[in-house]
Amino acid sequence: MTNNEQHTPLLSVDHLVTEFSAKGNKSITVVDDVSFTVNPGEIVAIVGESGSGKSITSQSIMGLLKSGGSITNGSIHYQGSNILTLSKKERRQLRGKEMSMIFQEPMSSLNPMLRIKSQIAEALRINQPSKSKRETMDNAIDLLKQVEIPDAEAVANRFPHQLSGGMRQRVMIAIALAGDPKLLIADEPTTALDVTTQAQILALIKDLNKRNGTGVIFITHDLSVVADIADRVLVMYAGKIVESATVYDLFEHPQHPYTIGLMKAMPTLDSQVEELEPISGNAPNLANKPEGCAFYPRCPFATEACLTAVPELRTLEKGHDVRCIHPVKEGVLHEK
Ligand SMILES: Nc1ncnc2c1ncn2[C@@H]1O[C@H](COP(=O)(O)OP(=O)(O)OP(=O)(O)O)[C@@H](O)[C@H]1O
């Protein structure tokens, strides 16, 4: 038994189901029986194409589902307590202090009318209302330094539009760190950034994770980002986890045809554009999913059985789960 397993996980999501309902329409299940844990100091990546349910999983954890969305089954335990039983006020207190989130486009979360220092101070005051104005401002500058903003004092006096995309994302991370959270959810935080800035932000998140022992859920559609940052990976397809493994196992021994497809579509430093193979077809319409395996219509290895068999998530070896009746390990994959 490893050290991590002896302790209660920081976060434990069990059989989570989240649905959306629109007036007069049947409700649509967008997160379907999702279970995973995050330990302190661990970075868990959730990867999958657009619409696979990554963001709704994180919004369910944060208690930030938009209207029409609701959790209809399962539990979410934070440090051993089911947070789904908390009041709205208690959930609000948890956000910002215990768990924080950063998004793809910082501009939509920052107030364009307020200087950076005031926005960080506002986040600090929620958690430390008794601190003097001077102390709060000093803490705000410290946070900007922690996220490696050069000339923090000058940046503190600027407005969001005066900063580059990378600097704005650093400011968002500083705001997310104001309550000293133990869990950070990063939803595609580097997608809008150029490659160099992306690498700097990833390095910063890794550094904060190692230095403060923060558990991180990192959401992305980009496997090269996963390879760079994650300890463990959950691959999502049509609302379900289809593969879950350590980052090493996932890249060395991918088991699910969807994961293999994502890898073939992933550019590497020495790959030629013509070698890349996008996965054929489109992700299914969640209101009208195929009957058996949801990946069946796009799967180059599918057999008759996949048309009707609904695959369970099963453990192939310790720490490596797959939702496929023909995983690579069992040696039955033959491309059609
Ligand atoms: N407010 C909403 N009402 C109805 N359906 C929604 C709503 N928000 C999201 N969905 C549906 O939930 C599914 C999962 O969406 P989600 O945003 O979690 O996907 P994602 O994997 O994060 O994709 P992306 O990378 O594009 O953000 C999608 O099919 C989407 O259409």
Describe this structure in words.
With 336 residues, the protein is of the alpha/beta class. The protein has a domain at 109-180. The chain has helices at residues 3-6, 54-62, 88-97, 116-127, 133-146, 152-156, 165-177, 195-212, 223-229, 247-252, 257-264; strands at residues 11-20, 28-38, 43-47, 69-78, 81-82, 99-102, 183-187, 215-220, 232-237, 240-246, 314-317, 320-322. The strands form two sheets. Strands 6-7-8-3-9-10-12-11 form an eight-stranded mixed β-sheet, sandwiched between helices. The chain has a four-stranded antiparallel β-sheet with strand order 2-1-4-5, covered by helices on one side. α8 (195-212) links the parallel β7 and β8. α4 packs across α5 (133-146), α4 runs parallel beside α7 (165-177) and α5 crosses α7 (165-177). The chain is globular, with a radius of gyration of 21 Å. The two termini are 41 Å apart. Residues 1-5 have low confidence and may be disordered. Residues 11-263 form the ABC transporter domain. It is found in: Cell membrane. One of its GO terms (biological process) is peptide transport.
Break the fold down into its secondary structure elements and pairings.
Layout: H1 3-6, E1 11-20, E2 28-38, E3 43-47, H2 54-62, E4 69-78, E5 81-82, H3 88-97, E6 99-102, H4 116-127, H5 133-146, H6 152-156, H7 165-177, E7 183-187, H8 195-212, E8 215-220, H9 223-229, E9 232-237, E10 240-246, H10 247-252, H11 257-264, E11 314-317, E12 320-322
Parallel strand pairs: 3-8, 3-9, 6-7, 7-8
Antiparallel strand pairs: 1-2, 1-4, 4-5, 9-10, 10-12, 11-12
Helix pairs in contact: 4-5, 4-7, 5-7
Bound molecules: adenosine-5'-triphosphate.
GO molecular function: ATP binding; ATP hydrolysis activity
Family: Belongs to the ABC transporter superfamily.
GO biological process, one term: peptide transport
